């Protein structure tokens, strides 16, 4: 078997890029081609890979971000797309790639974090990561409070709507000052294209894009995209309809007008800190910024 070669940041190498897309599709059913072709793979997303010829056989990607915790921005690296081709597993490739990431960023950022699935919960503590419990926040929707706002469903096939999403996405402010993310435009666009393409709504008067789903009396709000601070409570009630009983937020609302309940949310979050700063507790990382 040939010696594997380590390579990183090869976005412009078409054979390797396509092999990376193929491995991501086979491993996680991720569709990354359209995301790349739309120009949303920016310099803040860097794959660390082992290759054999023009074939990517193992990968750990980093997303360079800023976490906003209680209004303070800190340098952060989020790890994602950790995958190894089945023929190459059991050789410690993910561990070797993790060590390379730590060599480059372990001392250069205040926070490093990732979201792990149940099969690898014992893997990341070996590298200094600790599990952090997240919360999901909900509020009761008062009867008769459904708003009459001008809300338009967005269509990604429309160039006008796509331009609106990209423009607001690039200029957006973090959805929360208690726990928000800055610099996650590429991740946001992945979710818009591949996860929530049918759940994008524009509140025209408020100039807010809402990513939300309504089912069985529960309104799930995944993100609110705006360039100015907004009243989360007012926006939530405008998104509600006459059948809404509960509104759930997949981020950490910091609106003082909200009366919220919280419950445990098993997300598989692991955090590694460097320096004196601590990761926030009783919070929810914005769902559209998860790598």
TrEMBL record:
Phylogenetic lineage: Bacteria, Bacillati, Bacillota, Bacilli, Bacillales
Tell me which UniProt keywords the record has, alphabetically.
Acyltransferase, Transferase
Tell me the domain of life: Bacteria
Q: Does the keyword Cytoplasm apply?
A: no
Task: Give the protein name, as stated in the record.
Answer: GNAT family N-acetyltransferase
InterPro entries of this UniProt entry?
Answer: Acyl_CoA_acyltransferase (IPR016181), GNAT_dom (IPR000182), YpeA/RimI_acetyltransf (IPR050680)
What region holds the N-acetyltransferase domain? 1-157
Record bears the keyword Transferase: yes
Q: Which residues cross the membrane?
A: none
């Amino acid at each position: 078997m040939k010696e594997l070669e380590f390579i990183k940041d090869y976005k412009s190498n078409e054979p390797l890029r396509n092999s990376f897309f193929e491995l991501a599709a086979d491993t996680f059913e991720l569709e990354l081609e359209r995301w790349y072709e739309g120009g949303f793979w920016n310099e803040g997303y860097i794959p660390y890979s082992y290759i054999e010829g023009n074939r990517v056989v193992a990968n750990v990607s980093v997303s360079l971000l800023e976490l906003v915790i209680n209004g303070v921005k800190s340098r952060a690296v989020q790890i994602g797309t950790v995958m190894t081709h089945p023929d190459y597993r059991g050789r410690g490739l993910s561990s070797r790639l993790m060590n390379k990431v730590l060599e480059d960023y372990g001392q250069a950022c205040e926070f490093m974090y990732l979201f792990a699935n149940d099969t690898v919960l014992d893997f990341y503590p070996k590298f200094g990561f600790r599990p952090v419990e997240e919360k999901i926040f909900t509020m009761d929707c008062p009867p008769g409070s459904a708003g009459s706002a001008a809300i338009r469903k967005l269509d990604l096939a429309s160039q006008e709507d796509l331009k609106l999403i990209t423009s607001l996405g690039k200029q957006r402010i973090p959805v929360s000052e208690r726990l928000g993310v800055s610099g996650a435009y590429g991740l946001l666009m992945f979710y818009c294209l591949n996860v929530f393409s049918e759940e994008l709504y524009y509140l025209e008067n408020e100039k807010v894009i809402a990513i939300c789903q309504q089912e069985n009396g529960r309104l799930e709000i995944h993100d609110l995209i705006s360039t100015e601070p907004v009243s989360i409570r007012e926006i939530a009630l405008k998104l509600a309809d006459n059948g809404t009983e509960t509104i759930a937020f997949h981020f950490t609302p910091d609106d003082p007008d909200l009366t919220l309940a919280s419950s445990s949310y098993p997300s598989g979050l692991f955090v590694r800190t460097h320096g004196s700063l601590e990761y926030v507790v009783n919070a929810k990382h914005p769902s559209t910024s998860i790598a």
